[in-house]
Amino acid sequence: MLLTCFSKVDLGNDLVNKSATLFSDRTWFTLILRRVFLLHSFNTSNIIL
Question: Considering the entire predicted model, what is its pTM?
Answer without folding.
Answer: 0.42
